[in-house]
Amino acid sequence: MATLSVYDTAITQLIHGEQALISILKKASTHADAASFPSARLYEDMLPLSFQVQIASDMSKKVVREVYGIDPGAWEDNEKTLEELIARCEKTLALLQSVKPEDIGDKTADTKVTAKVGRDKIASLSVRNLVFGFVLPNFFFHVTTAYDILRMKGVPLGKMDYLNPFIASFSRPEGKKWYAYERMKMGAWNES
């Protein structure tokens, strides 16, 4: 039985999540109230959409930097429009797509790395714990919160707007442009 690599479990999931976020933000950009969305919040004591997108991006950069040793450089958190947030997601996606499985070098899931976890905390933890215990939960929390903010603001989003990049990665035949949901409706859903 083949084992999953850190690349398979981290980078590919982050790529699909960024693709979903780009799609969701682009759909939101056509809404009449789009200009107000970057500062929108689910609740007054929660951080706005712009922050949700920035932190999702930061989680991707953390894996690239700490696990793969590729320094993405400093990025300012100064996006004020949906177009700027989309551009940040596209920049993050390009960074993730530039990573190759072999970039991990001799690191394994048990290799200890030092990473910032939280605003002021530095921790030494395994690659496995960084990816599964910190990065992916934070990434998906912030992507989901961005989705929820936009849904609350009236953007006509559905579950498949979020899931399509994930499902389509294993369900769409090479060269076809079918969406996974359409394939499920047609009864063509299977693992083979």
Could you explain how this protein is built, in words?
It contains six helices and two strands. The chain is mainly alpha-helical. Residues 183-192 have low confidence and may be disordered. The protein has helices spanning 6-28, 49-66, 82-98, 127-152, 159-171, 180-185; strands spanning 112-116, 122-126. The chain has a two-stranded antiparallel sheet with strand order 1-2. Strand 1 (112-116) and strand 2 (122-126) form a beta hairpin. The chain has a single domain, classed as dinb family like domain (Four Helix Bundle (Hemerythrin (Met), subunit A)), CATH 1.20.120. It starts with 5 loop residues before the first helix and ends in a 7-residue tail after the last helix.
Write out key terms for the chains shown.
192 residues; mainly alpha; Four Helix Bundle (Hemerythrin (Met), subunit A); two-stranded antiparallel sheet; 6 helices; disordered C terminus
Largest sheet: 2 strands, antiparallel
CATH second-level architecture: Up-down Bundle
Q: Quote the beta fraction.
A: 5-15%
N-to-C span:
17 Å
Number of continuous helical runs: 6
Residue-averaged pLDDT: 88
Q: What is the CATH superfamily label? A: dinb family like domain
Number of strands: 2
| Uncertain ranges | 183-192
Pfam families: DUF1993
Protein name: DUF1993 domain-containing protein
InterPro entries: DinB/YfiT-like, DUF1993
In short:
This protein has about 190 residues and is mostly helical. The protein is built from six helices and two strands.
